[in-house]
Structures are given as C-alpha cells and as structure tokens.
Amino acid sequence: MSEQQHLEVEAAGLKWIGEHSFEDAKSGVPGMRGSISLTAVRGVEAEEFLVRLGADLEQLQCQDLYKDRDELAMPSGLDMTQISRAMYGTCGDWLYVLEDGFAATWFFGYRGVPAMAPLVGEEVICLTLNHHDAPALLLHAPGDGQTRQAEFGEAAEWSPALDAALRAAHAVFPSPYDGSGTTAEEAQQYVEEHRAELSPAVFTAVGQYCGLTIDCATVEAGMLPLAMISLPAI
Description:
Blueprint lengths: L2 H10 L2 H5 L17 E6 L3 H8 L3 H6 L20 E9 L2 E6 L5 H5 L13 E6 L8 E5 L6 E4 L8 H9 L15 H27 L5 H6 L4 E5 L4
Antiparallel strand pairs: 1-3, 1-4, 2-3, 2-7, 4-5, 5-6
C-alpha cells in the first residue's frame, strides 16, 4: 500500500475522530472536526432509531444537510437551547450519529428514556467524550438488551471480539487491577506518557470492530444529513 493509499484509509476510518477529540468543536469548518462523540447502531431502521433518540421526524424527512443548519427554518415547537444538531449516515448495516457537543445524546438518555433503551437484537456502541464530566466512556449494548461500559483505556471484558480490537489498537492501558503486576505508579506513568494516543486508539478499535468507516472530508464539509435531536432532561 502506498503512503497516499494509507492516508486515504486512515481518513475514511475512525482514527481521525479520536485525533481531534480535544480540539474546539468550533473549528471553522462547515461541518464537524473537533470534539466528536459517536453513537452507532445496527438491527434497527435508521429513521426509527433517530426518532427514538429524540430527532424531529418532520425535519428528518426534509433531508437537510448539516452544513445548511444555520439557514433553515426550524420546525415549530423546538427549543433550540435543548437541541443537539447532529449529523448521521450509514456504513454497511450500521447507522452512525455524530455530535460535537459535550457528550453523546444516547449516553444521556439510554437509562432514563424508555425509547432510547436498547432492545434485544439491536447492537449499540457509543463513544462519548463527556467533556462536561470526565472520563470519556465506551458503552456497548451487544444485542441482549443490556448495556455495559468502560472508561477509555479499559478492557471490554464482556465482549471478546471488541476487547481483541481494543487490545490490537493498543487502546487498553495497563492497570494495577488487571493481574499483570503493574503498580499504581507504573500505570499512572504509562497514562501520562500515552494520554494523547488513547482516544485515537479507541476510535480505531471501534472502527475495526464494527467495520465502520466515516470519511473525514465529508464530515468536515457538513455533507451528511442533519438531525435535530431534543436533549433528554438530566
């Protein structure tokens, strides 16, 4: 693979999202680049999941592009202070939702909003940066109607396949509790030395696990559909 091909593959994966995790969301692009949280789901129709997430159906059916969000007449009744302006797309059998606010809406609502709760047969994976209340989390509903979570850097012990992807991407950091004999001081030193690598590694691993690729240029240009999502009360 040539260097140019390698760069194209990385740009279409998820690593680039992690590389910009701690950049200002207001980065001057028409779409998104910094501080993006990801929610991906399969086993449910895209429109159904988006509505369950809190999206306005009338607006969804207009198929407006994210880049045009400031020029659109919004549906009546929407309180814009309680809206996440997200973009979404599909890759294979996955729907993905991108948000550059503090966190992913699904993270805020899946426990308290019945419509957001994962159903049996639906797989949901969410990388929420939680800039409002660290740490960043990986949440995973593998299809049994239950949701597990781990902090960025922790193993996904409930899913051998997801855990293997995290370890292959070097997204599992040593811990004094993992049986490796690592001391607390050694673990902290490792975190300090590799902190900048963690978010790109986690996003890379999830992309590999899901077979999910999202084109960086398309997202930066805002050329994906817009979803106006009402934030749940928290």
